[in-house]
Amino acid sequence: MFTETPIKKDKQTITKEGNAISPRIEDVKIKRLNPIEDKRGEMLEVFRPSWGFHSDPLVYVYQVRTKPKQIRGWVVHKEQDDRIFFCVGSFRVVLFDYRKDSPTFQLLNDFVFSERNPTLITFPVGVFHAVQNIGTSDAIFINMPTKPYNHENPDKYRLPIENDVIPFSFED
């Protein structure tokens, strides 16, 4: 029936439970969060130690606002994990495993998170990350890193958005 036309069959991208089948960078955890609604509005838990999401305690929390179409990154840490909650707007989140001893070394992950699916994600030590606001208004995320920011000696190492290390372009 379809042999005479250049029609391509879609490949499987998710399981029947709704989970992506693409490989994920080792130690990257993602938790979709569900708001509790009532007649007044909604409430959303952002982080709870009993979830077992991350074993380190909360020691520092900050909010980041990103203007439309802007990109923050590429950033990597040597001493801390980032635990980021995407809560307002729409973000494209790209991760690149730069840990030579990792089973997922040089694996790239590309996600989209929005306020329609509030998400908590862990960016482990040694994993480059960049986020792009893909919406039309300001977008906000909250970071709960495993170490407080050290103003005298920041644990932040950067690459330019376009570079020869990470095989990714935000232009697509």
Can you walk me through this structure?
With 172 residues, the protein is mainly β. The protein has strands at residues 30-32, 36-38, 41-43, 62-66, 71-76, 82-88, 90-97, 108-114, 119-123, 127-133, 139-143, 157-158. The chain has a domain at 30-43 and 54-158: Jelly Rolls. The strands form three sheets. Strands 1-9-6-11-4 form a five-stranded antiparallel beta sheet, with no helix packed on it. A five-stranded antiparallel beta sheet has the order 8-7-10-5-12, with no helix packed on it. It has a two-stranded antiparallel ribbon with strand order 2-3. The two termini are 33 Å apart. The mean pLDDT is 93.
List its traits:
single chain, 172 residues, mainly beta, Jelly Rolls, five-stranded antiparallel beta sheet, 35% strand, globular
Topology:
Layout: E1 30-32, E2 36-38, E3 41-43, E4 62-66, E5 71-76, E6 82-88, E7 90-97, E8 108-114, E9 119-123, E10 127-133, E11 139-143, E12 157-158
Antiparallel strand pairs: 1-9, 2-3, 4-11, 5-10, 5-12, 6-9, 6-11, 7-8, 7-10
What proportion strand? Answer: 35-45%
Strand arrangement in the largest pleated sheet: 1-9-6-11-4
Order of helices and strands: EEEEEEEEEEEE
User: How many E strands?
Assistant: 12
Mass-distribution shape: globular
CA distance, first residue to last residue: 33 Å
CATH superfamily of one domain: Jelly Rolls
Tell me the helix content. Answer: under 10%
